[in-house]
Amino acid sequence: TYRPAGFPAAPAADWTIPACVRHSNTRGQECFIVDRSTESLPLSANTCPSWVHPNAHGAGYFRFDFPEADWKNVFAHLADLDVAEKGAALASLHASVNAGNVKPAMLLQVLPLLDREMDVDLTEQIVRVLDGVSRTFVNDASRPAFRSWVTARLSSKKKALGWGENAANEPSET
Predict the structure, then answer these.
(1) What is the enclosing helix (H) or strand (E) of 52?
(2) Contact yes or no for 35/16 (Cβ under 8 A)
(3) Averaged pLDDT for residues 26-51
(4) Using an 8 Å Cβ cutoff, are 51 and 73 in contact?
(5) Model confidence over 42-81: pLDDT tens digits?
(6) Is 15 a residue whose pLDDT tops 50?
(7) Which of 32, 83, 106, 174 gets the highest tally of CB atoms within 10 A of its CB?
């Protein structure tokens, strides 16, 4: 269950959801019905895949979680993921950080890997994540350094996406 750290968990509930997985050992996706909160899925690969994305094409309405090393591995293979999968991974990592399962530093390590992504929807998601990090984890003393870091993340996107040309289209500053 994803919830902010320190908040009580909702009563346990099991859901049955369809989930499709993409991984390095297949060109397509493998789909399953998941009916438990933790599930091991038998992939058809003959060898262990170098990367796995549990929400193929970002089509599932769910979050997923990994240990830190697996998060690093997913983001190390961004070139293999489509835009929706990148967004699903970022949203799930952000939720994992908010739940206290992964340290906020992990977000700060992976966000620069998305600097060259120019998709408008993914960029807006990045801005929302940066805003959440700012509100939740950045104190007044570190805010100027964080703003500089955010500017470095978004400066190339600003021109490419036309954000300076019309202030109404520009996201608010973090």
Answers:
(1) strand 52-53
(2) yes
(3) 84
(4) yes
(5) 888 788 898 999 999 999 988 999 999 999 999 999 999 9
(6) yes
(7) 174
Q: For the sheet with 17-23, list strands across it.
A: 30-34, 17-23, 52-53
In 3D space, the residue among 66, 130, 136, 139 whose CA is nearest the CA of residue 101 turns out to be: 66
d(CA 10, CA 132): 22
* Pairwise CA distance, residues 133 & 95, whole Å: 11
Radius of gyration for the alpha carbons in the chain, expressed in angstroms and rounded: 17
Cα distances (angstroms) measured from residue 170 to each of 87, 88, 133, 164: 20, 23, 19, 7
The two tokens of residue 149 are 């870091």
Q: Is residue 15 within 8 Å of 1, Cβ to Cβ?
A: no
